[in-house]
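User: quick one - fold this with adenosine-5'-triphosphate bound?
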Amino acid sequence: MKREKIAAILNAPKIGEKVLVKGWVRSFRANRFISINDGSTINNIQAVVEFENFDESLLKRITTASSVAVIGELVESQGKGQAVEIKVESVEIIGDANPDDVQKTVMQPKKHSLEFLREQAHLRFRTNTVGAVFRIRHAVSYAIHKFFNDEGCYYLHTPIITASDAEGAGETFHVTNLDMENLPKNEEGNINFKEDFFGKKVNLTVSGQLEAELAALALGQVYTFGPTFRAENSNTSRHLAEFWMIEPEVAFNDLKDNMDLTERFLKYIGKYILDNCKDDLQFLNDRDAKEQQSKPQNQRNELSLIERIQFVVENDFKRLTYTEAIEVLRNSKPFKKKKFKFPVEWGVDLHSEHERYLVEKEFKCPVILTDYPAEIKAFYMRQNDDGKTVAAMDVLFPGIGEIVGGSQREERMDVLKKKIADFNIEEEELWWYLDTRKFGTVPHAGFGLGFERMVMFVTGMANIRDVIPFPRTPQNAEF
Ligand code: ATP
Ligand code: MN
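Assistant: Sure. Structure tokens for the protein plus adenosine-5'-triphosphate:
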């Protein structure tokens, strides 16, 4: 007999049919009702056993977390809470689970803290919340590939090991196979990387953008979607040492085209999740509502999770320049009452407190900030005519802060070379990058979306550690 997925059975129940279901027992009540989940949906199927017809020794082994195969007729449910159930004809225990051991884990059916779930990241997939998050994470990933495929963008696999850290996007992790106990030295007494595997110092990538630009200037439009590594010692709820980033790069796009693409892209993901992840989203929506209730009134979100996604899908993002944002912030109540921790004046980098004020208090919608001072942005961003600012854009989301960072790239060789010198970067290191400006250079633009930050937004999870299977953070690389 062929196994059927619980999702398929519940979506289109065929009453009277004989089905085979395999899954894990979530609970077994009154020696009669087995609640089974197979991961295909957040919903369990109820299997009803007439205990008189079964061996007591068999029934004893139907415990929470054990795995079973159940065959029986699909019937309309007698009880409340489910439309259909399985009238069990046979039960097979596939794998036992000792109840005493289960007691100590997140599989015990009761509410657990997210911290406890993180300690048992290997078992937390068995819980409703984490199951829902990872089904949605998959859907976000699929939506991203679908969006770019439909746009005619090619998926480009940029290297994970690279010698380029010129971007300065973050602290890097070195990659080496040198003997750490016995490092080769050169004449000056420094480590001799010529003897290292690649014959030079290399690191894990902080961004695939520079390589994506090379491809975009021939294939027209590409995107990357891969792991990114930053050795940043910031133990925040929004930073990981290993995260996934999506970086589209489009030839002939200027900053406005770039903003339009970003906005369309983020709305598409939101709509895809609303349309395709209804059960998981409803569960997380209710979870989020309870979570909001336990917060102080002034920190609560006025909108539910589903409403927050709908809001992003349906409303235009607010677009303003960095210079305008500084004005808004300097005229704000928290600035005048000296409530901001960090200074607000033209030229400073904005901090999370400023970004959140703009998004959550001032405009109450996603914000795209553009045209930042050149000094606080990367060398490759296109210089504006004012000579002071560059064609950069950051997208700020409620509850998250920065979700996207992007720009129009400097396509003019002379300006780019001057910027490289200003940033004290060795021109020779970037010979390949500069070559693209030598042969038919064109305006182009792109951005980077932090994948986990988007997953946080559509799941309502407040900590980035809860939306990646096995988080890598300072002092933590378990599992
Ligand atoms: P932040 O100011 O939040 O540290 P950033 O300016 O360093 O971000 P970019 O270099 O522009 O970020 O990277 C592009 C996107 O990648 C960001 O908008 C964000 O969504 C995501 N991102 C950056 N750093 C991390 C990280 N350590 N963990 C998870 N996502 C990140
Ligand atoms: Mn950063």
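One thing worth noting: The radius of gyration is 27 Å.
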